[in-house]
Amino acid sequence: MLLESIRLEDGQFSNLALHQKRLDRARRVSFGKPKKLRISDIIDGLDVPQQGTHKLRIVYGEDLISAEFHPYSIKPITSLKVVKADGLDYGHKYSNRDGIKHLFERRGKCDDIIMVKHGYVMDASYANLALYDGRHWYTPAYPMLRGVRREQLLKEKILRPAIIRDRDLGNFQMARLVNAMIPWGAGNDILNIVP
Question: Which of 10, 63, 80, 93 matches a 20 to 30 Å C-alpha distance to 193?
Answer without folding.
Answer: 93
